[in-house]
Amino acid sequence: MDLRLLAYGLTGVVVLLDRLTKIWIQHNVALWDRILVIPGLFDIIHTENSGMAFGLMNEGASSWRTILLVGVAGVVLVAVAVLIWRLPGRMPAHQRFTPAALGLILGGAIGNVYDRAVQGSVTDFLDVYIGRHHWPAFNVADSAITVGAALVALELILSPAERKKV
Question: Is 18 annotated in the active site?
Fold first, then answer.
């Protein structure tokens, strides 16, 4: 199978799932409403994040913030898309997760950049917590980026001997 097709296909799946879930949340859950899923652990909550990850730069309503965040993310999008385009026909064993990881990262980045460019904020809705201790709300795109980055880290950690052979 063409690794680029795999990576770009995964990108498309992530973008589609991200858009569909965000549209559903925006149309069915009022802002700040909460749906209890697993009490004490997981809820659905509709939030809008105009800042960066974890709500950084979330205060104020500056158009420069949106331009800066979309611009930086745009550079990352292009870089990851080029990395995918340059994938070889066959990956070494120690890089077996790279196409999927890059596809997940690209799909997640596209999902969040789309929101930020179109509406000036990103819709977040997954709320994981233990008691009163909450992880910042996130979405499908954030999850894809995190899993993609974890796959890259896993490859770096698990195969140092293989990398030395290359």
Answer: no
